[in-house]
Design a protein that fits this description.
Elements (H helix, E strand, L loop, with lengths): L1 H18 L10 H6 L31 H6 L11 H7 L34 E12 L2 E14 L7 E9 L17 E5 L3 E8 L5 E7 L4 E6 L19 E8 L8
Antiparallel strand pairs: 1-2, 1-8, 2-3, 3-4, 4-5, 5-6, 6-7, 7-8
Length: about 260
């Protein structure tokens, strides 16, 4: 019975606690209003962006467009994805520079052989007047003139001839005076461009070569090595040595040089 009485007392106490508010006022009083949560404001809906107006892609012409129409036609603004063929048709006209003027090429002229300044005829004795100067390692030695007597060979006129120094200035130290050609006839070898007047040892043992240009008349005599000493067989080298240069022309020798 005691237990039943305790249970009833507990039930009465719990019902009384739920029936009255803790502050002695009703649930609808000011205390109830302050404790109630405030409602949150609703978010405003975002405005949707309007879609951009896309220009329609230009249509390709069915046939070729005349060039006169393209010059005055307005150029339409197209999107980046325009077909390259359409862009090529809408390109503005560009003035091209005039073509370069090509100079006329002169005709090719076949070179002809130079005329022979010293033509020698066979069976005829020719006189050559030569004006030369002798130069040594230290400079000019002498200059003057002399005459040569030249005659072509009767057997081989195109290959060989003979010559001799017949008249020379006594003050001129010509290199031919050191050869036997001043008193004897010397052999001449004829080539396409030169008369090889002399190519042998001089009376003093030096090697001397004398050439005469057939086309210009240029005369050149040059010593190519040293002298051969008496009683010896070894050449003494003396460097380039002396040389003689000048020009010869066909001219009849006078009776007297001075």
């Amino acid at each position: 019975m005691k237990r039943l009485a305790l249970l009833l007392a507990c039930a009465l106490l719990s019902s009384a606690a739920y029936a009255e508010p803790p502050d002695g006022e009703g649930a609808s009083g000011p205390v109830g209003e302050e404790s109630a949560p405030k409602p949150k404001p609703k978010p405003r809906p975002k405005a949707k962006p309007k879609p951009k107006a896309v220009a329609p892609a230009p249509r390709l012409p069915e046939g070729p467009i005349p060039y006169t129409q393209l010059q005055n036609a307005p150029v339409a603004k197209t999107d980046a994805h325009t077909s390259p063929a359409v862009v090529a048709h809408m390109a503005p006209s560009v003035s091209l520079p005039p073509p370069p003027v090509i100079a006329a090429v002169p005709p090719i002229v076949t070179p002809t052989a130079p005329s022979e300044a010293l033509p020698l005829s066979p069976s005829v004795t020719h006189d050559l007047k030569c004006e030369t100067q002798v130069v040594g390692p230290k400079g000019l030695i002498s200059k003057g003139q002399f005459y040569l007597e030249v005659e072509l060979s009767d057997v081989f006129p195109e290959d060989t001839a003979r010559f001799k120094m017949v008249m020379a200035d006594p003050r001129h130290q010509s290199l031919l005076k050191d050869t036997a050609c001043e008193t004897l006839d010397c052999r001449v070898t004829i080539s396409a461009n030169y008369y090889d007047l002399y190519n042998a040892r001089t009376k003093r043992g030096a090697q001397l070569r004398v050439t005469l240009d057939r086309h210009t008349g240029a005369y050149l005599a040059r010593r190519t090595d040293g002298k051969l000493p008496l009683g010896g067989s070894t050449l003494i080298k003396e460097g380039p040595g002396e040389y003689e240069e000048g020009y010869c022309t066909l001219q009849k020798r006078p009776e007297k040089l001075f």
